[in-house]
UniProtKB/TrEMBL annotation, chain A:
Transmembrane segments: 80-97, 104-125, 164-185
Species name: Natronogracilivirga saccharolytica
Name used for this protein in its record: Uncharacterized protein
Domain of life: Bacteria
Keywords tagged on the record: Membrane, Transmembrane, Transmembrane helix
Automatic annotation (TrEMBL), chain B:
Gene: nosZ
Residues annotated as transmembrane: 7-26
PANTHER family: CYTOCHROME C OXIDASE SUBUNIT II, NITROUS-OXIDE REDUCTASE
Species for this entry: Natronogracilivirga saccharolytica
Catalytic class of the enzyme: oxidoreductase
Protein name: Sec-dependent nitrous-oxide reductase
EC number assigned by the record: 1.7.2.4
SUPFAM superfamilies: Cupredoxins (SSF49503), Nitrous oxide reductase, N-terminal domain (SSF50974)
Top-level taxon of the source organism: Bacteria
Main location: other
UniProt-annotated location(s): Cell envelope
Amino acid sequence: MNRTSRLGLFLAALLLIPVFFTPIWSITLTAPQYPDGIGMYIWVNDITGHERHDIQNINILNHYVGMQEIDPDQVPTLDIIPWVIAGLIALAAAAAATGSRWLAWIWVALFIISGVAGMYDFYMWGYEYGHNLDPRAAIKVPDMTYQPPVIGRETLLNITAHSWPYWGTLWVTLSLLTGTGGLFWDRIAKKKGR
Amino acid sequence: MIQKTTIWKVSTVLLGIGLVSVLMYGCPSQTEMLDTGDAAQRVYVAPGEYDEYYAFLSGGYSGQLSVWGLPSGRMFRNIPVFSQDPESGYGYSEETKPLLMTSYGFIPWDDSHHPELSLTNSMPDGRWMFINANNTPRVARIDLTSFETVETLELPNTGGNHASTFATENTEYIIGATRFSIPYDMDMDVPIDTYSENFDGSLSFIGVDDETGEMSMDFQILMPPYHYDLGRAGKGPSADWVFFTTYNTEEAHTLLEINASEFDKDYIVAVNWKMAEEYVREGRAETVPAEYYHNMKDENTSVAVSNVHDEVLLLDPRDAPDMIYFLPTPKSPHGVDIDPTGEYIVGGGKLATVIPVHSFSRMLDAIDNDAFEEIINGIPVLEYESTIVGEVENPGLGPLHTEFDGDGHAYTSVYISSEIVKWSLETFEVVDRIDSYYSIGHLMITGGDTPNPDKRYMLGLTKTSRDRFLPTGPKQLHPAQLYDISGDRMEMLLDFPTIGEPHYAQAIPADQIRDNVKQIYDLDANNHPHAVKRTADARVERDGDVVRVYMTNIRSHFTPDNIEGIRVGDEVHFHLTNIEQDWDMVHGFAIKGSNSAEVLIAPGETKTIVWHPQRTGIFPFYCTAFCSALHQEMQGYVRVSPADTDVPLTWRTGED
């Protein structure tokens, strides 16, 4: 690969570093009693409240309809994602260092597979969380489930859930664009050079 | 049959008469119409909007402090201070009972007149509110992050702490004074007609820690046996001084309405508190025995603790020259108020025909020139003419209290003629007057007691409402009136009912407090010795007859909610911890047959209520605060068995 493409891949590796320091997704719940909303951030390795006690308060609200408690320690994906990101960083760095097209293409493939798998896992987490309700819940609404949207806005009883990507997703996207951009630049340069 | 035209004629004539009579009699005066035409708009704060000012109104004989918004006149909160409050459990819970302890035992009531915001450079800083107890002399401090009473201090050697609470420039001191002179020696049993020999006056200087707000009885000054009525600290050039009014310089002890009204002049007392403090630090004060209580909420545990003190430092003006002077002032003066520049000292001679105005700079000159009429107990009496700079003529009958707009005007409440007069600080002439409804005591201008008043609103605190509201029996409410003083003329905007009997009030721009108000108590920082922070730790323990229930509250259940093995004759302590951390998510607790009150527990807080079960049976308890959709399910049972029962002590929640 040429210098520019390798630089692109190196930049792609760097862009994945801030993903550890900003949430990748944000879910906000608004209700009449919570005009400013309460909410949570989803990080690569954790789930935290927008404010210090938001997770506790969301759990208190949710227990009435029999939803499980949100406990970051009980979400196995959160243990895996940091390693996946770290692996992608290492792979991009290795591809940039060696200039190996093969490594670079494997990086792109793994990146896209991880991304799709991550979104699927997120959907399934929401599905499980919204459907697996305690049969002894105080409030039971026939046919009602409480799955938050993966992206967008949805009203569930008195609460509107707003689910949107956060800064971390921007870094992930930019990383993918920069890396693949580099690879395409390499192809173009190769053709022209010939 | 009457003709139609006749009816028209008669109607027209009647209508004409009607119009004339409306014009002549029925219509309020033109000025009043103009003044109040758009008042509703000017006090209207739309739903969801905030008021511009917090106003704090003393509760008078309710012993409370109420919190209001201006200009709307909406009440936000009523804070119990020197009163038990069955609503919150203040004064009933084990954590708060010590705040009502005195050397006379537990006193669940008092008469609170004068709230005072803590000051920095003579401006309110929004940290604390102080308020006095008149009857059993005390001073309290309220924390303005929680709006809760956190400290009370008893004043020894004091009969009625009326001239309190007023703060010096940077809240170095809160002042107090004896309204009724009494014998200084504790519990001294003497004939009342030995008044002049055995009775003494006292002024109190309560130190305030700048960091924590903690109060201490720093020193007292021994005074002649007069009555000390009101006080104020100076500001600007007079910031080192505090001023008190006296009445009963006649030293009467019976039928004071006649006997204490004889002399033409009583005094304003000027005290250089900086000098007094130095004398005390130099060791010129005598240590005298005095029993008094100091009660304070422990920062760490949030449990109030009482400390008993047994002596006080007493400074005698005969041993401490040049620090205190009498300014003759007509006639049984009530209020003493200092203008924003710190130069004018305005007396409210409630029986006087003028409002006397002393000059601080002339007072200093008079002191330099030894312009003394006489010296009483080491206190020089300055010549009246040497300090007076103006006498406001025609102020109405019974001028009491004065505040200022920072624009060269003073506003004096006038009790007997039920009005407020506005007068010029240049010409000492009345420029405007407006009715109050009825019999006004204090008035309060937004910032009107500071060096930098907001010429916006004035609150009149009146004593009787009579016909102003729908009647509610022989005892009517005490109202307040809101006036707009931003223009040349005073305009009345609003007339609203209050809680208790507000004497004085304080106001502060809302943003100076709003952003500092706590939303929860941090559960992690809850170091109450009987707190339980996790439902799993909830339990019941017995130690002899004392049973401690360590109970958690969270929407919508108590843990435990079934308790058995309690015996008749037990002393049951319910230690309730609200483990929620969500703003305004308050739980309550009450149990059938309790001879106490409920308690309300704020998020993160632990509160304790003691219950003495007297009969066997099943006793329901429940959450009294509508906390959630399943609030009605937030309840439980205690089984009480005979004293000699062998029912074991058990507790549970959610198990059959």
